[in-house]
Amino acid sequence: MAGSVLDSPSSTASGNDPSRTWWQRTRRRLSGDFHLTLMAVFVFLATLALLPFLIFRTATGDYPSAFVNGGVLAVIYIGFGYSWLTGRTEGARRLIVVFLAVISFYMIVVAGRFPYWMFPIVVANFMLVGWRFAMAVSVVMLLSVGLSTQLFEDPSDTVSFFASIMIVGLFSMVFALNTNFHRDRLREMVSRDALTGAFNRRVLRDDLTDAIAWSRRHGEPVALALLDLDNFKRINDEQGHEVGDSVLIELTRIVHSQSRKSDRFYRLGGEEFVLLLNHTDPEGARTAMQKLMEQMRTELRSPAGPVTVSIGLALLHPEENWSQWLARADQAMYRAKSEGKDRVVFAE
User: What is the pTM of this model?
Assistant: First the structure.
């Protein structure tokens, strides 16, 4: 059955598996969210850099500076905590970048501190947020500081300082752009089927687990359809694997053309595919599958004639895990095969 293709026991399918240690759950969470990982690294480095100053300045009675150090750490911790709890990092990352720019201006212009910290802050800007936002914040920060105070007695030292920090910023921007480009390419390679472009089994399990958690948290219905091409082995044997590949690609195109942005499509293996229908009640799932079947009956064909598809459809039941849910869709698909193929069957 297709439910066994993912090779994972149902007892450990959920992301809330009690057998996982706290560290294992944390590593899994961070490995799936690049920006959250960046924020975690930034929190760690900021703690190493600022906590000793906070302790030292508190101990020596320099309370204004200690208050600033503590405030910076507090904003960074709050931003990371918000991102960890909600999964939304962009707003928190932008807030931290803007706050650090304001603090830099205050420490240099108002408190009269030497601008050492502007170098790591400029680097952090390009690591934490998109290059356009980072560039805008960095330029405003440098202009505000440069026009508000005289950093050095010798003008040539001022020119050298700003030239140096601009070079650091440009190198940081180039590094961030290159890293993001290769990260996106790598993510596509490991998450999508090379032939069809559909998501692969690696992504399916995590998405099903997330869909179940979302459905239970918000009371939203969600449906799962398992699609299997009828007589696909005969197509490969009689017409060749190139024709079979073209049929798989065309099937993917048709499904994407009929899907919403919230739907997700996966290649489970061979000629089997999975369509995850988020925010879909039974009537909506039935209507969506009828439209999809009509489209495939019209457009899906090989040189020898039309190609049909059998579909098993399962609405998520309370308290079932992803493997049980997928297994019910798989059973419904086999019922569609046994009842004559080229049809949709709803799971019990």
Answer: 0.61
